[in-house]
Amino acid sequence: MTTAHEEAKVRFLATLEIARRELALLEYSHSKLFSVTIDPHWVQQFSTDMDGAETLEAFVARFGRLQDTVGGKLIPRALTTLLEKPGAMIDNLSRAEQLGWVTDTEGWITVRELRNRLVHEYVTDPGQFAADIRAAGEFVPMFRKTYESLLQLAQDRLGVAEHRLQDYLQPNTSSSERSAAITPPASTHNPS
Amino acid sequence: MRLTQRQQRVINDAAAQTFGPDAKVILFGSRLDDQKRGGDIDLLVECPRPVANAGIIAARMAAKIQMQLGERKVDVLYTWPGFAPSPAHQAALTQGEQL
User: Fold this and answer.
1) What is the pLDDT along chain B (99 residues), one digit of tens a residue?
2) Residue B30 and residue B26: Cα distance in Å, rounded?
3) Is B54 on the interface with A (CB under 8 A)?
4) Contact criterion met (CB < 8 Å) for A114 and B55
5) Residue A103: helix, strand or coil by DSSP?
6) Taking a C-beta distance cutoff of 8 angstroms, is the pair A70, A143 a contact?
7) What's A80's DSSP letter?
8) Does A90 contact B71 at a Cβ distance shorter than 8 Å?
9) What pTM, to 2 d.p., does this model score?
10) Distance (Å, whole) CA A173 – CA A171
11) Torsion angle, CA of A63/A53/A129/A64, rounded to 10 degrees?
12) Cβ of A46 under 8 Å from any chain B Cβ?
């Protein structure tokens, strides 16, 4: 295996670990936000409900962060590990759909547009705003499915289980240390 | 207007598939200016009656356009009789051109 391919593998696995963490944070905010009914009445009491506003803010931010990680980094890097050449985002998503990683490319793009509306000034109607939030919420399980498909790829093709993903995020760990036993057992201990 | 026949057709088809065949699409913003190049595609969809969940429908219309025309910024506003127009809506209605 070439060094370049080895590096691509490491980048994919490190990005998968980032996506795992971002997904955990998003799922937390998602269940907290949707523990109450999101309706026009809920939107209207926003100016006084500081906790609710903060929960929504966290949900929208985490949603956007994960969508950018998965669409902009994880899927292109997964394609690279398969020795495919990534292209524009929509093309990558369509390819990911063919490979079974993404269920609905058009839905993916739709939610990205929706998210832009949630953070901009377009929404003045409380009913509309509540509907937009609910639509974004319905998309969260699709992120989980995409993550699980790519975790499967990591396990089946690269032999890396979920609990080992975090090893690939440590910038000081070289690939030789991960795969072989060059690292001294007490590597965390400072010898001086 | 700086949109090709194909681009206009894609936009009209996307509007018909999402907002319905009665929706009219108005182009406004920088794409009306023949002196400029590239830029966002700013659209206002005029519906004959109120539309439920219009935000999601507008997002889906923008997604359909991007799937056909490639990644670019597409802004879709909407209006219907009785809809309280924003300054952007008013500018689109007075300066825009129907596709």
Assistant:
1) 889 999 999 999 999 999 999 999 999 998 988 888 878 899 999 999 999 888 899 999 999 999 999 878 899 999 999 988 888 899 899 999 999
2) 13
3) yes
4) yes
5) coil
6) yes
7) H
8) yes
9) 0.83
10) 6
11) -10
12) no
